[in-house]
Design a protein that fits this description.
The chain has 14 helices and 15 strands. The protein is α/β, with parallel strands linked by helices and 459 residues long. The strands form three sheets. The chain has an eight-stranded parallel beta barrel with strand order 3-4-5-6-7-8-9-10, surrounded by six helices. A five-stranded mixed β-sheet has the order 11-12-13-14-15, sandwiched between helices. The chain has a two-stranded antiparallel ribbon with strand order 1-2. Strand 5, helix 3 and strand 6 form a beta-alpha-beta unit. The structure holds iron/sulfur cluster.
Amino acid sequence: MASQRQIHVGGVPIGGGAPVAVQTMTKTETADVAATLAQIERVAQAGADLVRVAVPRREDADALGEIVARSPIPVIADIHFNYTLALRALDAGAHCVRLNPGNIGGPDKVAQVVARAKELGTPLRIGVNSGSLPEHLRELEYTNPVEALVAAATGFVELMERLQFTNFKVSMKSTSVPDTIASNRMLAERIPYPLHLGVTEAGTKWSGSLKSAVGLGTLLADGIGDTIRISLSTFHAEEEVKVAWEILKALKLRERGPVLIACPTCGRLQFDMDTIVAEVERRLADYDEPIEVSVLGCAVNGIGEARHADFGITGAKDAGAIYAKGRMLRKVPTERLVDELFAEIDRYYAAGRRVIRDERAAAEAERWLAEHEDETALTPERLAALEAAAAREQQAAGTEGREHHGRGAEGADSGGPGADGAEPGGRGEDGEAAGSARAGEEAAGARRARVAGRRFTRA
Ligand code: SF4
């Protein structure tokens, strides 16, 4: 479930059913305004809705005014230990201040920050990390880390409520994926405030992306989480943004830019799929539209596997085919597949999102594809045909059963054989059901036999 409450960070709504916001954190020294703004520009272009900057020193807080004024997206100041920096960040116009009430110097310091945030109408993010829980929860952290995280977060929420401040979101981060999932599930049940999700110190681009996808993806699939950050050990913050978007796109929570579908390849592959997929992905990065493009390694499954793609290619040794929205467009030499794919995509947009199809070229490509298809492959088209045939057989068998039943009924009317209507296989309702079930089983058995006689070659 989405959080009940909604806040606004700059112009970005968080929680209350708003789209899940993507955020990241700059890796530069915040006081280096030019470098920080350049990185903010890059993450904004990659799709960040919000950006957080570290404010560990006074000069970082001093740089905030210019950064906030020139940033294309709302800026969140990240504060630890020093409540005066939080006050400075608020005064500099930060769109949100993240603080950990556990390390800011006590409730009276928190109260001063809250009072300033209230005056300015600036939201806060209450951030709890597994590595910096309050002293009184340290023991619980060893025995039950999930309860410890949730207790810290709810304790801070209660403090905010005592201060009559509700303009905040909450984050509760752990390096453990299971703890991240369990604690956020528990917290989402207990508080109405928006949740920011992340797996802290997730790791390198490879392992960190996977951990984040599992942890955040599980929560997001449950409807938990209003804003996310992927923490990766890279100086390129835009990589975090790209991963966040892939997670949101995979869950169909948000759309941004193209979606690339590519087969995993197998022993049927006859061309350099790796290079082609990489090239397609590289060129798609120039498109903003949420177009779906499929790359299949061979023609064995026809175009059925990528029926829902807007555009796609399927390759072979010397030639491949381009298709659009489940229909063939044309055959092209393998070395020109990518160029021609993008020519078709550009033509589609130039024509106002209309696929331009040359019927002769399409027919030629269909003939070529039919010649190269594996006759034994259980393509979606063939599977559909098999199912339709089985359904026809079943229907025919059912009709036959009913005819038997009709004759039984006549007998019953006339007081002849079958008058009790109980003999299976043709008399009475039980008899009809049994006859029909048998016919269905026979049809299904025939279908299974046909299917078993073919190699299943779908990717
Ligand atoms: S059979 Fe499937 S996985 Fe193998 S190359 Fe063809 S499309 Fe790719």
